[in-house]
Structure formats: structure tokens, C-alpha cells
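[recover] target loaded
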């Protein structure tokens, strides 16, 4: 019999298995780029941009260096900068705020729904001022935000929407992909994302050809033609090697997202009804892509230690709300002023999920969580 000590751990996410599954075609694509002698702004990027735009049901994708740059350049491309305000979720990864700060604009945090991790549109309306230029909803954990209500508000107040889709490749809202049509959405291809590369990468998708053209200049020193600089751009290009790898993985994204959904369904039924444990809620008209499977409990740290002792890796997304991060000391609202974000930060725990997590591993997680819940219930 194998002792508990010898049982392999359940990893939070197995990136190496993702490489192994597609190793021959990935190695061939990398070799193709190496052999081509073209490493930036070449045919792989062009091919990926066309394929990713089509996947997102829109016309343009512009590959950049990271998700953070995708957000920042999308905001700059829309002319947002110093003196402007952008509404951001209080509960998100810090990059959503940092991208706004990097343009010189001010991030104005608004709380999520009480039981759902995305922006609450009722609270958004109260935060709009004459300086507000844009809303920046985040499709957190792969769950689409309440886009109809946000679009209605944006239209009524003449605001742009820049969607942070770093965790939502392939998710659908009312049957359409995040990024579809005339949306402006920023994606990250950080290795752990649903569509990830072998380093940093990102893209902005948009239905607006002029914005796409400005973004192509902004990412390449403000230049359309070598040594002609029409604006103060930056260097933020998605390189040929990453683009080639992303093209291969894009063809598998729906099937990989399907495996995530099957595991989420397993967790949702296996963990239903446990006292003191909040499960993720799927909002009506949304098809999430389960970037994360995040539960909530006031006894989060206990649950985390219990799972760790049983060989199960977990993460917290995110342990410190952005307004309490030292990065925003003196600028953001004080402790106690964004109670929903603070309660998410105190309670959230993400269980292992990913296209290479086996069903048996998920069942092991379920057993361990149930064991913890029974113990807590009897205490
Ligand atoms: C919600 C969110 N926004 C933005 C980013 C930034 O993406 P990147 O790490 O590619 O800069 C990330 C991921 O790290 C994210 O999770």
C-alpha cells in the first residue's frame, strides 16, 4: 500500500503537462521560427492576430508584451491619461489598477457583487463623476461581468469600456465571446492563463480599426514605418516564438476550457451543501471558463492548511485587497471602506483546476474538503 507521504501532491496547475500534450507540434513551431530568421512582427504574429480575433468574434487583435500592457495601451489608445478617472473593481489583481495608474489616470475602485466576484453595476453608477472616462470591468476567475448593465451605464454617461479579460479567454456573455463585436478587451497570455505562452504575452482585441491601428503604433515606438515616429509609443511586441506557440494552443483552447468546466461541475456537485463553504456562482446568461475555482469560507487558513497536509496545493486570489496594498498607500480608500473586497480577500481559496488535472485528483480534493467540513461541523 502507498503511504500518504508517497502519494504525489495534487498540483495547483500543471504547466509541464500542457507542454507534454502538444510537444511535437510545439517543438516544430519553435524550430520553424528559429529557422526563419524572423523573430519580431512577422508572419506568426500576423497569423495569430487574425486567428485570435476570429476566435473572439471580432475584427482586430494586436499582440503585445503582457496583459498589463494590453490594458495600459488600450487605455492610452482611447486617449485616457492624466486628470481622467477610470472605474476599476476593488476586488481584482493589482494589474487592473496599475494599468490605469501607468497612464497617469486615477483608478476609482468599486465593489463587486456580494456573492459574485465581478463589478456591481448599481455601485458603479454612484462612482461616476465628470472626470470619469472609462469603466474597466474584470471577468475575474473566468466569470463574465454584468456587461449589459455596464454598457447601458457607459452609453448613458458617454464612457469607454475596456474589459480586463486576462482570466476569460473563450468565456461567453449572452452567447457571444468576451471581446466580440465592437468591444475593447485586454488579454494576458501569462503561462498560467487559460491560453498561455512560454513567457509574457498579451493582446488587445477590438472591433475598431482606428484603435487597432493606434495600438499597432503604440506597441512599436509609435511607428508605422521604420524610423518614422508619429506618437510617443513604447516597445511592447508579442514575439514570433510566443505567437507560434499561441497559434497551436488556440486550436485546443475550447477543449481545454471544456476539461476545466467538467472539473468545475465535479467540484460543484461534490462540495454542494457543505456548511460554512461558499461555492462559485455562475451568473445568468454567462458561460465562464473556470480560470480559477474559488471557494469562500471564514476559516480559509484552516482549510488551506488541512488541504496542504493532505498533499493538495491551493492559492488565494488575492490575499491583500489592492486598496490596502503598500503600492497604493495614501492614494486609495482606507481599511474598512471597501468591505466586500476585504471579505473576498479574507475568505477566498482557489482549488486546483486546469486542463491536465485528472478527475481522480479532483475527487481527492473533494474528499479532503468534505473531511474538513465534517470536522468543523462537529467542533
Ligand atoms: C485580472 C488580471 N488583469 C491583468 C493581468 C496582467 O496580465 P500579465 O501578467 O500578462 O501582465 C492579470 C494576470 O496576471 C490578471 O489576472
Amino acid at each position: 500500500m502507498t503511504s500518504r507521504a508517497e502519494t504525489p501532491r495534487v498540483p495547483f496547475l500543471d504547466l509541464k503537462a500542457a507542454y507534454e500534450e502538444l510537444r511535437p507540434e510545439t517543438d516544430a513551431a519553435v524550430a520553424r521560427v528559429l529557422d526563419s530568421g524572423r523573430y519580431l512582427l512577422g508572419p506568426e504574429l500576423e497569423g495569430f492576430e487574425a486567428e485570435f480575433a476570429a476566435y473572439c468574434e471580432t475584427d482586430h487583435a494586436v499582440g503585445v508584451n503582457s496583459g498589463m500592457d494590453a490594458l495600459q495601451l488600450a487605455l492610452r489608445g482611447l486617449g485616457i491619461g492624466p486628470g481622467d478617472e477610470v472605474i476599476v473593481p476593488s476586488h481584482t489583481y493589482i494589474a487592473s489598477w496599475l494599468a490605469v495608474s501607468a497612464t497617469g489616470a486615477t483608478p476609482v475602485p468599486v465593489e463587486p457583487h456580494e456573492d459574485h466576484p465581478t463589478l456591481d453595476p448599481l455601485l458603479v453608477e454612484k462612482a461616476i463623476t465628470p472626470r470619469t472616462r472609462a469603466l474597466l470591468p474584470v471577468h475575474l476567475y473566468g466569470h463574465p461581468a454584468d456587461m449589459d448593465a455596464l454598457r447601458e451605464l457607459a452609453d448613458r454617461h458617454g464612457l469607454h469600456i475596456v474589459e480586463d479579460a486576462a482570466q476569460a479567454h473563450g468565456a461567453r456573455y449572452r452567447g457571444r465571446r468576451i471581446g466580440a463585436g465592437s468591444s475593447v478587451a485586454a488579454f494576458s497570455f501569462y503561462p498560467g492563463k487559460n491560453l498561455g505562452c512560454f513567457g509574457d504575452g498579451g493582446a488587445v482585441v477590438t472591433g475598431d480599426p482606428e484603435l487597432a491601428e493606434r495600438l499597432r503604433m503604440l506597441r512599436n515606438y509609435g511607428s508605422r514605418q521604420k524610423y518614422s515616429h508619429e506618437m510617443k509609443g513604447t516597445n511592447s511586441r508579442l514575439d514570433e516564438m510566443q505567437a507560434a506557440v499561441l497559434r497551436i494552443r488556440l486550436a485546443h483552447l475550447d477543449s481545454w476550457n471544456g476539461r476545466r468546466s467538467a472539473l468545475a461541475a465535479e467540484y460543484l456537485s461534490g462540495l454542494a451543501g457543505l456548511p460554512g463553504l461558499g461555492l462559485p456562482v455562475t451568473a445568468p446568461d454567462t458561460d465562464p471558463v473556470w480560470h480559477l475555482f474559488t471557494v469562500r469560507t471564514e476559516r480559509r487558513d484552516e482549510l488551506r492548511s488541512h488541504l496542504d497536509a493532505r498533499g493538495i496545493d491551493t492559492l488565494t486570489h488575492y490575499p491583500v485587497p489592492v486598496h490596502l496594498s503598500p503600492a497604493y498607500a495614501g492614494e486609495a480608500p482606507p481599511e474598512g471602506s471597501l468591505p466586500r473586497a476585504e471579505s473576498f480577500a479574507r475568505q477566498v481559496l482557489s482549488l486546483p483546476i486546469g486542463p491536465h488535472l485528472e478527475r481522480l485528483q479532483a475527487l481527492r480534493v473533494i474528499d479532503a474538503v468534505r473531511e474538513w467540513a465534517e470536522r468543523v461541523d462537529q467542533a
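[recover] notes: The mean pLDDT is 97.
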